[in-house]
């Protein structure tokens, strides 16, 4: 005879907004990298790279430095989302995600495999919208009356010594 275990509810722990943002930037970077990596399997891409061209751009130190800078920003947003104070992180996430929307859409320019690159862009845009939503709706807490009206430490020390 088997005894039936009682049904339990899974615990839903509150995830800090900073962790959600870091996870979203990580997802964005994985999508961006995998679209680029899988893009190498597009006919003609490797040949163009070997000939020194990416899309319409000549491969050069300037191109590579620009590409690295373009990707370093969202990479650093992973760390900054966890490390910056909430107010600064909120603003940085809103600004950077908003700036990356047109950058992401630009990746469709001249794409020959529209379904593949289109799907990549749509998925990246979904993540950027989530980042902006998380940052925009960051919960606020009201200052407690004690904190707002409490005397400074020096004043408290002076009172104790008197």
**Biggest sheet features:** 2 strands, antiparallel
Cα radius of gyration in angstroms: 24 Å
Average pLDDT score: 86
- Overall geometry comes to extended
Q: What order do the helices and strands follow?
A: HHEEHHHHH
- Cα distance spanning the termini: 77 Å
Report low-confidence residues grouped into runs of 5 or more.
none
Strand order of the largest sheet: 1-2
Task: Describe this entry's structure for a reader.
With 162 residues, this protein is mostly helical. The chain has one domain. It is 68% helix and 2% strand. It has seven helices and two strands. A two-stranded antiparallel sheet has the order 1-2. A hairpin with a 2-residue loop joins strand 1 (53-54) and strand 2 (57-58). Helix 1 (17-39) packs antiparallel against helix 3 (61-83). The N and C termini lie far apart (77 Å).
Name its key features.
162 residues, mainly alpha, two-stranded antiparallel ribbon, extended
Topology (elements, then pairings):
Layout: H1 17-39, H2 45-50, E1 53-54, E2 57-58, H3 61-83, H4 86-106, H5 114-136, H6 145-149, H7 153-161
Can you summarize this structure?
The chain is mainly alpha-helical. The protein has helices at residues 17-39, 45-50, 61-83, 86-106, 114-136, 145-149, 153-161; strands at residues 53-54, 57-58.
């Amino acid at each position: 005879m088997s005894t039936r275990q009682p049904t339990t509810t899974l615990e839903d722990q509150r995830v800090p907004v900073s962790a959600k943002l870091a996870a979203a930037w990580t997802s964005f970077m994985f999508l961006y990298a995998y679209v680029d990596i899988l893009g190498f399997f597009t006919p003609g891409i490797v040949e163009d790279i070997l000939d020194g061209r990416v899309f319409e751009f000549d491969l050069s130190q300037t191109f590579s430095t620009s590409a690295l800078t373009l990707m370093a920003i969202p990479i650093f947003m992973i760390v900054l989302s966890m490390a910056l104070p909430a107010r600064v992180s909120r603003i940085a996430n809103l600004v950077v995600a908003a700036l990356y929307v047109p950058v992401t859409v630009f990746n469709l320019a001249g794409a020959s495999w529209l379904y593949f690159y289109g799907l990549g862009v749509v998925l990246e845009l979904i993540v950027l919208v989530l980042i902006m939503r998380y940052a925009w709706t960051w919960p606020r807490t009201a200052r407690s009356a004690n904190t707002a009206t409490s005397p400074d430490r020096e004043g408290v020390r002076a009172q104790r010594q008197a």
